Amino acid sequence: MTSRMSKGETNHRANPTLPTSQSGLLRPTLAFTICFLLAPNTSVGAVAPVLLRSAGDFAILAKSGISTVPPSSVLGDIGVSPIDSTAITGFSLTLDSSGRFAVSTQVTGRVYAPDYASPTAITLTTAVSDMQTAYTDAAGRSLPDFTELGGGNIGGMTLAPGLYQWGTGVTIPADVTLSGGAQDVWIFQIAGNLTAAEGKAVILRGGAQAKNIFWQVAGGVGVELGTTSHFEGIILSQAAINLRTGASINGRLLAQTAVVLDANAVVAHATSSVRLRTAVDLSGPYVDVTNQTLDPANRILTAPQSGDVRFYRVWAETVLTIRSITVENGMIAIRYE
Known about the structure:
mainly beta; single chain; disordered N terminus
C-alpha cells in the first residue's frame, strides 16, 4: 500500500494492515490522516526560506557524480542523476536486496542512482528538478538587504539574517559568524565562486539553524571548502562542490555537476522529526503519542497503540510516501520513504 502526498495536505486516509484475532475478525480499525507541517511563518519583511522539496531528502545530490577518498562520513541519503551508479566512487557500495538503493559503511542512509530498480529513477529525476528549482528560486530573490559586502571578503564578519548579493566570488579567509534566531533566514547570492580557507569556519549564534542558510553559487568553478574547514548551511551550486581533506559541513551539498569528498564529515540537518499524533475524535485535538521511536536510517516510525479505537496523524515537514502501516501486539509500525 502506497500513499503519496504533497507537503501541506491533510486528511488523507491510509488503510493499516491489521492482524486478525482468533475469531478471524479484524481488530478495531485505526483511522489515519496524513498531515504535513508547513514552513514556519516569517515576520513581515523577513526573508522566506528556499523550498528544497524532494531535493531536501538528500545530504548530497549531484548530476554528474559523487566521489570520496575514505574515510568520509555522511549522515543522510546521497544520490546522482542523470549519471548512473558508476559515477559514485570510493564508497564500496553494496546493492540492497530490493535493488532500489545501495548502502555504504561511509553513509548513514541510502545511496541512490537512476540505474537502480523502480521507482528510484523517477524519484531522482524529481529530486534533481527540485534542486534546480530551488537554485533558481534562491538566485531570483530581489531587493537584497546587503550588496557587495566586503567586496566579497566576509572573513571575520558577523552577519545578520537577510538577503546578500555579490556580483563577484565570496571568500572566507577568517571565521564568519551568522547571528540570529531559530526561524531567521540567510540567502547568499554569489555570482562567482565560494571559497573557505583552510581551518576556517562558519559559526552559528543565537539559535541560527543550518537548514535556514542558503548559499547559491553561480561561479564556473563552484565551491571549495579548505582543509579542516567547517561550514554551515545548504549549498546550491551550479558547478562542483569540493571538500578538501578533513573539511566538514552541517547542511546539504546540492550540485549541478559533481561533489568531491576527501575524508569529510557531512551531516544533513534534520528534515524535521517525523512523528505520530493521536486523538479520540477526527477533529482533534491531536497530541504526540508517548514513547514513540524514529529510525531515520531505515525509515520506520514505531509507537505503542493508544487504545482500541483512535485517530492518528503522521506529521512531517517534507513529502513522504507511506509504504505500510502495521498494527501488531499493541504496536504501530509505519514505514515511509
